[in-house]
Amino acid sequence: MSTHRSRRSFIGHAAAGFSTLASSRLVQAQAVPKPAQPEHAVDAPVSIEVNARPIPSFEPRDRARVRFGSLQYRSGLVLTSPHRGFGGLSGFRFLDDKGERFLALSDQGTWFTGAVRYDGSKMAGLDDVEAAPMLNAEGRPITEKRLWYDTESLARDGSLVYVGLERVNQIMRFDFAKGGTRARGEVIASPAAIRKLPVNKGLEALVFVPKGQPLAGTLIAFSERGLDADGNLVAFLIGGPSPGQFAVRRTDKFDISDAVLLASGEVLILERKFSWFTGIDIRIRAIPLKSIAPGALVDGGELFRADLGHEVDNMEGIDAHVTADGETVLTMVSDDNFSMLQRTLLLQFTLVE
User: What is the structure's pLDDT at 209?
Assistant: First the structure.
């Protein structure tokens, strides 16, 4: 059997496996009461070992190819750990300008911190990784409260860190100047419409707009698949100069999984869609920040698209940093759903257009 046919067969089986997993997770989310304490949550800070296997090529069918739309592949890692709480990564943000120290979260109320180790420009592994529970205002793990664990979105404003909880559609704020991941979180005021978002398709991406940009001081919250009357994706402007609600045009049945704001003033939206026949598709769209306003319907051009023919999985997190050479690097992470059928991937690309 040819390598190409073998790969196609593998992709088909992978898509089938992912389909079964997605179906079972959907049924579970809708029909089975969730426990107060998720199976993979941690209850105290702990240092963990994370192993990394390099991904030499983003497209195994054409190993020499490095250009994918407006992105150029730099490197990637498959991450594994003997610690049962590692996985489910749904948000990722760098804590420095070098693209080294990071903060990530799982969808089970767990922080992960550490550093990306590089060999030249390529990622080589993760160092000093620690897992810690997210704490509520009383200093207890947020997971002790029923359904308060589906932590899907992450944004930073200096030492302030915002986390969106999808299942209860609430937003918490943590001041990392008060103990880092030991900081206690507080629920912030948010539009009433956020609480009306679908239980398992609610808050999926958060972006904080810094000084010097339009809408400075605004927290932008995107729903995964909260739809307006026209079938477009609902999003919110919280705080800032002009709070309100707007929409992102939904096309090709893609849903939002994360977003990041570039210094150039473009919001990059990471999206995905699932098909029973082809598996998962990933894309990135660029939306000008200046086009976002209360009542607006915004759209943007496609920069990147990939499917199971590439080294992707359930990509749920994206961030950006600028290298000393002035290159804009995008980092994406996948949520393996704590499943043997999926992988935790960390991918980096250079934005070339």
Answer: 98
Decide the pairing of beta strands 297-298 and 244-248.
parallel
For residues 227 and 242, give the distance between their C-alpha atoms in angstroms, rounded to a whole number: 22
Model confidence over 223-266: pLDDT tens digits? 999 999 999 999 999 999 999 999 999 999 999 999 999 999 99
DSSP 5: H
Q: Go through the chain and tell me how many residues it has.
A: 353
Is 107 in contact with 335 (CB distance < 8 Å)?
A: yes
CA distances for 128 relative to 46, 77, 113, 217, angstroms: 11, 16, 8, 32
Find the radius of gyration of the CA atoms of the chain.
Answer: 19
Non-local CB neighbours of 36 within 8 Å, separated by 6+ positions? 143, 144, 145, 146
Q: Of 248, 229, 328, nearest to 291 (Cα)?
A: 248
Helix, strand and coil in the chain, % to nearest 5: 15, 45, 40
Q: Provide the terminal-to-terminal Cα distance of the chain, rounded to the nearest Å.
A: 39
Q: Of 113, 107, 201, 200, whose CA–CA distance to 156 is shortest? A: 113
Read off the pLDDT of residues 290-321 as tens digits, 9 standing for 90 and up. Answer: 999 999 999 999 999 999 999 999 999 999 99
The pLDDT tens digits for 167-224 are 899 999 999 999 999 999 999 999 999 999 998 899 999 999 999 999 999 999 999 9
Predicted structure pTM score: 0.90
Please answer whether residues 333 and 114 qualify as being in contact, where contact means their C-beta atoms are separated by less than 8 angstroms: no
> What is the rounded CA–CA span in Å between residue 228 and residue 217?
25
Q: Cβ(296)–Cβ(248) under 8 Å?
A: no
Number of helices and strands (H, E) in the chain?
1, 24
CA distance 95 to 90: 16
Closest CA to 171 of 186, 182, 184: 186
How many C-beta atoms surround the C-beta of residue 175 within 10 A? 15
The pLDDT assigned to 200 comes to 83
